[in-house]
Sequence to fold (275 residues):
Amino acid sequence: MISYILWDVNPEIFTIPEFLGVGPFPVRWYGLMFAAALLIGQQIMIHIFKKEHKPQEDIDALTLYMVISTVLGARIGHFLFYEPETLFKNPLEVLMPPYAGLASHGAIIGIITGLYLYSRSRKSTGQTFTWVADRIVILVALAGSLIRFGNLMNSEIVGKQTDVSWAFLFPYNYEYRDVVPRHPAQLYESITCLILFFILLGLWNKFKEKTPRGLLVGIFFVWVFTLRFLYEFIKENQEHFEDNYLLNMGQILSIPAVLLGIYFIWTSRTKSLKA
Fold:
């Protein structure tokens, strides 16, 4: 007899009670994972800056750029790719809580934009766009792992129905009321992002300031979005309109991201050969 994994974890860890008429505030696993990604990532960046003799005072500015650009990019990307009619009718809704819709492809576009703006005034310290991007993707891979684990704890972004022995049952998923065995797609992405984190960190630790410019960015894009393209075949579509497409929105957006990654890897190789 096949035994599936019953994933009945409550998305809320605990609730901060009402105080002086304010609250209550539920503390959720997803928020905890997001905060952990930010705090751990900042400590790793401090280590990188120390090893490569970059100004420590720039880290707070870089963190601020990343937080704002990631959240804005993810929100705008969600509405642009999945609910464009809402974005054009009421663009201010992007800024209004609750922040239930976040698109990873939008977050990547936001991060690229934020890195460009950050690096423009810091070229004199050697923090060019590709230098910063090569280091940031190490943290983004870790953040991706933690956030996808947060999705698992929330019982959201579930996979399609399956009969594999490690399939999960998601009674806390309110989008699909039928509690049937499904691929734990969030866990697949979390694990592969964690593997990527260690690969990128290992490559940086090997080369440090001699890391070929654009190499880590290229590996990140090719790894993440090739797997994202494949994972989408075993995930439920985010929006119903995608059911009519041969490829869903996540797959369509992943194709140019993979090509961009190949470009970064190629240019890093040619630059290292010239050097």
